[in-house]
Amino acid sequence: MPANAFNGFTEYGVGIGLRVPHYRHILAKKPVVDWFEIISENFMVDGGRPLEVLDSILEQYRVVQHGVAIYFGSADKFNREHLRRLKRLVKYTNTPWLSDHLCWGSVDGRYTHDLLPMPYTFAVARHTAEKIRAARDYLEVPICVENVSSYAEYHASEMTEWEFLSEVVELADCGILLDVNNIYVSSQNHNFDPYDYLNNVPHHRVGQIHIAGHSKFEKYILDTHDHPVLDPVWKMYAHAIKLAGHTATLLEWDDRIPSFDEVHNEALKANKFRDKQLAATTA
Amino acid sequence: MKRSKPTNFGTNSSPQLPRKINSRAQLRDLQRAMANALFRPLNPQWGMQKRWIDGSSMEAVASEFIKPNDRLSSFERLEIYNRQYWFRTLDCLYDDYPGLRAVVGERRFMKLATAYLSRYPSNSHTLRDLGNRLEQFLTEEPQWSAPREELALDMVRFEWAQVVAFDGPAKAPVTPDDILDTPAAKLRLGLQPYLSLLELNCAVDDFLIAVKKRESDVLRGEASNAMEAAPKAAVRRKRVRLPKREKVYLAVHRHDNMLYYKRLDPEAFAILSSLGRGSTVEDACVEAVTASERTTIDWSAQLKDWFDAWSSLGWFCRRS
Lengths: 283, 320
Hints:
heterodimer, A: 283 residues, alpha/beta, TIM Barrel, eight-stranded parallel β-barrel, two-stranded antiparallel sheet, 11 helices, B: 320 residues, mainly alpha, 2 domains, 9% strand
């Protein structure tokens, strides 16, 4: 399932996140990269250097928008100014799909700037799906929602996270940005089998996959995005593309960012799993 | 508009949450409770406070809505988010306000930033705006920057102006052809939204340059230091001498998407400020020249030089 309605019927290969420490290298050397993922909020500005950089990137590369602050799961209504700016950027980048997280992060107009977990209930799934549908109708672009890594669970939850994700995306008729590292992190923090998660989401809705590194502490794992991808996550990635097909894949590396080449080479390891999977299916 | 019924989640009382979330109102209650917990400052050991605002046990409050697991209590799980919130927001202010940090000192800066965020939690989707009420806060609560209240205020205004100049909106600059037929007595010019005009009581521009130079020198030193784990606070930094009290007029702007600050003569500042308020070019110039104490100056040549420079920098646009 390399291309589907949820990623705008594209086949984008392996990309990396566009990050400030790499700007100079990318603009000067113009390395070959399948695509860049940009953080929408970093470019929802009115002018200046960020938009100049974006213009240069758009001249050379395919760009997909990834957001961190729509907060589909917040009880609050959408911030209309946020959506207006986002739509302006969607038109500017011509992103084939747009992703953001299945989480909440603001209430009563106060922002935590975090990706906070949802209580997994049917009522919350309906509310969240309604907001995703409304956003898609307004933004006029396919939407994929990403599962977040989490460190806490609520008493109020009445289903597993993967059941909640499935419920939301079916109700919203939207795609999934499947973050296999986040599944791994949450599975370790909440004592579930990550393969139960992978096996039980609607694979035909997976429009994009995220991979990343994490950090292990004594009693929990933190989703730090400051390491290479760890082996258990690569194994899960191999399983994910077996189930969903070779899907647009993106490496996230957001802290202690090494050289562009190191990040890109780490991302390109994903191709090894794609080749293996292709060989297995054609054998 | 349908509203959720009043609850105690916005108050100091410990929350009593429904065990089931069957409505948007209940979801909001849960989110308010969690946000209130996250927004509470950490204790001096960078952990979550043991007591809720009303004195009740924080462990009990956390266990109202967060499940424990076999390794972590409800308190410890909530604490992860509490710490992440404060680490993220303090880190952001730390990076964006090096000048204010240098004025009040590193340790006091953290206290000031914590007090600021406690009073004014972020109201924007972007961390860029996190300091958008710092000036207001320092005006309302000058004790956080005492005895350098004036310098701290100048610095915050200056540093916020740089945020605006970095990515604020730009309008199409006015060209000579646009205004050719309009006499100065009728001509009104707008100023670019990214341009800030600051009347300051201290030379914070020179001071900030020195602070940034010192910080980059320290960073270079740290990068070449094998003992890379040394905590920031332990690095000995030579203090930059605080600026003397002097009147400074500053334009903070961008050109070719690079950030600049430019000192202005008092009369130039007066003219630009007056234009910004909607005066005609003639009125702005006459007012500034009349008020000037300088007598040995060719005003027509000076005004032409200024307007030529400002036009070439693209500062003028049509009034909205």
